[in-house]
């Protein structure tokens, strides 16, 4: 069962990337683009239908509503356009990830956090 859940999560992740690509495609209808934009805005918004601080129930919108909205948006995009962008998303997944690049970004974040902590720390020499 865990394998099926992981597979489903990978499919959703690929479809989200494909929806992003499809939303930029002129062959995609405006209403599919609008729904994809709404889904992205809701997913990134700090405001939820059910607040996350409510135990168990708080994550239901992320677990149930977002995947259902993603599936609806996928159905609104023409099948040939979606197939093309799914293939592009799959190719992007297969590209190697730069560990060195990730290390540089992580080091910059840590350096920034350290400098900010030093600057805000009471009694530090400025």
Largest sheet: none
How would you sum up the global shape? Answer: extended
Oligomeric state: single chain
What's the tally of helices? 5
Q: DSSP strand (E) fraction?
A: under 5%
Structural domain count: 1
Give the end-to-end Cα distance, rounded to a whole number of Å: 56 Å
Report the C-alpha radius of gyration, rounded. Answer: 20 Å
Mean pLDDT: 84
Protein structure class? mainly alpha
Number of strands: 0
What does this entry look like structurally?
With 126 residues, the protein is mainly α. Helices cover 73% and strands 0% of the residues. The chain has one domain (2-95). It contains five helices and no strands. The chain is extended. The chain has helices at 2-23, 30-44, 60-76, 79-94, 99-120. The mean pLDDT is 84.
Task: Explain the layout of strands and helices.
Layout (H helix, E strand, L loop, with lengths): L1 H22 L6 H15 L15 H17 L2 H16 L4 H22 L6
Short description:
With 126 residues, this protein is mostly helical.
Core attributes:
126 residues, mainly alpha, single chain
């Amino acid at each position: 069962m865990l394998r099926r859940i992981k597979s489903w999560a990978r499919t959703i992740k690929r479809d989200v990337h494909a929806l992003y690509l499809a939303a930029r495609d002129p062959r995609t209808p405006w209403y599919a683009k609008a729904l994809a934009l709404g889904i992205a805005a809701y997913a990134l918004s700090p405001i939820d239908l059910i607040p996350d601080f409510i135990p168990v129930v708080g994550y239901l919108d992320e677990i149930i509503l977002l995947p259902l909205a993603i599936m609806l948006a996928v159905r609104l995009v023409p099948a040939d356009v979606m197939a093309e962008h799914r293939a592009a998303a799959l190719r992007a997944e297969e590209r190697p990830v730069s560990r060195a690049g990730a290390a540089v970004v992580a080091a910059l974040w840590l350096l920034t956090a350290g400098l900010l902590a030093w600057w805000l720390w009471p009694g530090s020499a400025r």
